[in-house]
Design a protein that fits this description.
Helix content is 27%, strand content 21%. It has a single domain, classed as Aminopeptidase, CATH 3.40.630.30. The protein has a 5-stranded mixed β-sheet, with helices on both faces. The protein has 4 helices and 5 strands; from the N terminus they run E-H-H-E-E-E-H-E-H. The longest helix is centred in the middle third of the chain and has 15 residues. The protein is α+β, with helices and mostly antiparallel strands and 162 residues long. The structure holds coenzyme A. Coenzyme A (COA) binds next to strand 4, helix 3 and helix 4.
Length: 162
């Protein structure tokens, strides 16, 4: 752990740009996700937040957490590249676990991209195990278009709206 104290609390809206910069430096952003909007939505939600780890006021770690009524979920875990290997990542995970447990969630879970073996090593080092599940998902259009639509696939030319 660094010599100066590491303090964890909720991310401030004014820190979103710094958080997104950390996520970009950490390889966590993807072109199809609007990271700033992800951050704003998590901070605005009643059952989600972004935990921020700071040293002397500098944002050096993040963990987005949410409680969906059944499980705690974690996204955007990152520590500053120049401060890795000093226990900050594990401290963020323990804080995320505490956040989820406080909201009655019996478990914290997360998804790791297949091209991120370093993250798998980290999670296993701190006591997490891979579960035998496959994640299925369906992405909606810009303003939720496509969500909940029933597609008539009975005739020629019909099908999913493009
Ligand atoms: C993953 C990440 C958050 C780890 O943060 P960190 O601050 O370096 O982690 P810590 O120093 O707390 O490490 C905790 C333990 O995990 C171990 N560990 C860390 N990375 C590891 C790796 N790639 N393989 C094996 N063990 C690892 C550490 O050695 C330490 O174990 P120890 O206490 O026995 O020494 C950081 O590397 C990161 O931000 N990566 C880029 C973003 C990312 O991939 N996030 C996860 C998305 S799913």
């Amino acid at each position: 752990m660094p010599s100066q104290s590491f303090v964890i609390s909720d991310l401030e809206i004014a820190e979103i740009d710094a958080a997104v910069a950390l996520w970009e430096d950490s390889g966590l952003t993807r072109p199809w996700n609007d990271a700033r909007e992800d951050a704003r939505r998590a901070l605005a939600g009643a059952t989600s937040t972004i935990l921020a780890g700071r040293i002397a006021g500098r944002l050096v770690a993040t963990a987005m957490v949410g409680a969906d009524g059944h499980r705690g979920w974690l996204y955007y875990l990152a520590t500053a590249p120049d401060l890795r290997g000093q226990g900050l990542g594990e401290a963020m995970m323990r804080a995320a676990e505490g956040w989820a447990a406080t909201r009655g969630m019996p478990k914290l879970q997360l998804m790791v991209r297949h091209d991120n073996p370093e993250a798998k090593g980290f999670y296993e080092a701190i006591g997490y195990t891979a579960e035998p599940v496959t994640v299925y998902a369906r992405r909606f259009g810009a303003a939720g278009q496509g969500a909940g639509e029933v597609v008539d696939s009975s005739g020629p030319g019909s099908g999913w709206p493009t």
